[in-house]
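## Example record

The block below lists the input lines for one assembly entry, exactly as stored, with component labels intact.
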Amino acid sequence: MAAVESGRPQAAKLRWGELEEDDAGDLDFLLPPRVVEGPDENGIKKTTEYRFDEDGNKVKVTTTTRVRKLGKARVSKKAKERRNWAKFGDAVHEDVGSRLTMVSTEEILLERPRAPGTKEEPSVSEGLGPVQPGAVLMVCRTCGKKGDHWTSKCPYKDLAQPPETFVERPSTADAASAAPGGAGRSAYVPPSMRGGGERTGTEMSRRRNDENSVRVTNLSEDTREPDLLELFRTFGPVSRVYVAIDQKTGMSRGFGFVNFVHREDAERAINKLNGYGYDNLILRVEWATPRPN
Amino acid sequence: MRPILMKGHERPLTFLKYNREGDLLLSCAKDHTPTVWFADDGQRLGTYRGHNGAVWCCDVSHDSTRLVTGSADQSVKLWDVQTGTQLYSFNFNSPARSVDFSVGDKLVVITTDPFMGNPSTIQVKRIAEDPADQTSDSVLTIKGPQGRINRAVWGPLNKTIISAGEDSIIRIWDSETGQLLKESDKESGHQKTISSLCMFTDKSHFLTGSADKSAKLWDTRSLTLLKTYQMDRPVNAVAISPLLDHVVIGGGQEAVNVTMTDRRAGKFEAKFYHKILQDEIGGVKGHFGPINALAFNPDGRSFSSGGEDGYVRLHHFDPDYFSIRM
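Predicted structure tokens for the full assembly:
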């Protein structure tokens, strides 16, 4: 009996039912070819190509690029020929959308070294009183007292003044202005001097502050301290905000702490903001420690 | 300027080389695959597949048809630049570190690392016109100085071979007899391992960079120290501009400082110095990791840097670069 060679011809007429999953990668012939609409007068080039994504759907990818002339170059004939060489190695399957080569979005300059003697830091002191020549002028940014202490050593450290003070507290405000303490006739009186009740010192107030600590979780990746401050300051003066940041990636780890000066503000913040939608995530706001009473 | 970022390598870059006409840029990295790019817009042309270890160095022939690469997989391979096919492979007993074509591309000087009791060697192999005739006989073998030889290049007219390495001494050898002709002075020379060496286009002088945070310019014939450029970090890569009196030096980071790396990304810079006045001209920031490779385009109008971060950054100079006055 003569052996009959029955091989399937390698035509493009494959029946889809006979194709195995593994062959999915070779289906490029089913895709329409890539279309390039060349650079127009603005230099815009549109390339339309098709490919299969992971689920096997046919995907049309349109890439719009601006072709910009960077400069003129005199090329030798050989160099011009090399421009037309076919891609090889790993570059063979390179599609137009590959992000291997990108022009930097930042403008990078050849930074000249600064001449010695030029100052970089902006000067902090403005409108200060007469200073003895040679003396170091200490200015505290928090309480504005001059010549007493630096900002980091400010005894009135737990103070972040919200621009709109609460209308509900006219009494304390009045009491504050009535008892200026040792600050002279200045309009500003730090809260630790107000009402006289917290004279025992800032240690106490700071500790109490930590008991007014509110933990906020389910923060979005790019939330930072200023964002939390802005969100929580409407409930009252906030003494400290902290957002946990992953050192390696610079992203927020999703949680942070807000310390209120007044306990009632913290309580209201919790009631109002727990479950609040902020930057596409639902916040969880609660007491940081098990509820102290 | 707006540098072009090319992320073709998954691992740190080790070496960059332009071809003679400056239209192709070859990059070698620890990821086993040397890559060729177009030097004007940074588009990738192709990759050379075949090595099994980190590729330390490469060189391309005068007519841009042959590429030679030295790799830690103990082989030096000869490739056809256009198609990426491997033409020949020289095998050694230890990792190959540096390769350099001679003028005329008939010879190549290769250095191998000290490994498993074998000392470091400098070997010269003949390159045949027709790859089919290629043999792996060494024309010359010099058995080494102590320590790793990081770079060996041909001197003017192929009469000498200049080597520099871990023992921080630059040596000049006769290329026919293998005899040691000159050594650099110990006191005025580098004090720590020499990581890189770059010849000027006419080979009259060359620049070496060392872990002792300085780069030094030497006269090729007499090996006199001409200039020293001080950096604040160990030097990994050096390059001399073919057009202006500039040199560019790229550095790394001392091991003790690694855990205290500045979190602000993109702060590793390539520093430009005036070649003759030794003053710093400026720095080009942008790399996220130490700079391991630098190369000037032969026309002097652009340069590229390769970093530990796997990126190659191709910079075309702004017009005001050419009118910098010191």
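Chain B touches chain A through 48 residues (CB under 8 Å). The radius of gyration of chain B is 18 Å.
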